[in-house]
């Protein structure tokens, strides 16, 4: 063989090897265990399978036919509460029964740039999230009690910029834009936002996770704000993550703000436990560790809690991709274990507790409902549903997620009719679910069912301080510090 032919053969072999390597890297990582095995209070966690390129599996939205509805769990019925909406996401139910939903999308020019940004924009468009933000709040009003909103009013204001979180108290409507927490003067029943809102605090703008959900504390004195990270695992540097991957606490009386909890990659739903009054949240965990990791989760959030992102996941698993130094005060021994796994890449968003008058029947009367928006980077796809997590009498999650609404994802997994996004209970106890890509708010009830009973709050006296070391000889009286030690 001539030298020229040998060189050509070598080049061809190198090309084939290169193509083989590229094909291998681009081959989707398929899950090796059922989704249910990675859900619940004790998920089965396999070893990470690090990916150079993410598994991409996007179900393209097709919408619902006029006579189609999602599949409800046995004993439940689902109808359209409202439709024709422009990408509805969060929900808030006013005391008078008016339903507010944010018509919103990511702000322009956020997220990665360059080739990565181009790919991200393509994926967002394919998933039905590539449009411009409407920057409005829709007021939906069921005037005759038939379970459908006859009146739909759009509340617009120049100050709205990718709004998401909504809350109301005593004539003030609180709205979280992607970059600020605002307060509008707003009376119940009003059909317009007027005047100049007051900016309560700045928020880290945009980023990979741009939604900023909020929740008023049960006593109405504080607002909690969920702020997601700007990246997967801090690959753009930790400077851009300042103030992110955290839940913030804003004091309405003093105007003081503090970081309430941290290490939460992308917290979304916020709700207070009817048993204990504790704050709970849903969190989207990290990507590119394979289709079996890491599970999104539901957890309580005590003040000062640290959940490990980006250095640690699921309490004691260190992410080898992260080489940033840990911040001052970061102690791996004190990283909290999430309470309940919801499955990897399901994109858990909206959260609401049942009970206290909800009308989903006894089977779903004591727990939480969660909207799982659906995966874009898992094979097979996961989520695209609304699930129920039962809680015991002490306010702890139990068992596995139980489907409440399914049928969004097509049987072949290639397309989806819609994507459930947020959940809230209407004043009549019906469950409302936003479906952002379809522009619909669904209404779910148990026909003929009675409102669920009130949840019994956990009460009791505090334990007295221990003043004795049992098993030893030392005892502690009031003057122990003054006594000489023998």
From TrEMBL:
Keywords: Membrane, Transmembrane, Transmembrane helix
Pfam families named among the record's database cross-references: TrAA12 (PF22807)
Location of the Pyrroloquinoline quinone-dependent pyranose dehydrogenase beta-propeller domain: 150-289, 338-445
Stretches the record annotates as Disordered: 462-486
Transmembrane region(s): 7-26
Record PANTHER family: LARGE, MULTIFUNCTIONAL SECRETED PROTEIN, LARGE, MULTIFUNCTIONAL SECRETED PROTEIN-RELATED
Name this polypeptide is given: Membrane bound L-sorbosone dehydrogenase
Organism encoding this protein: Tsuneonella dongtanensis
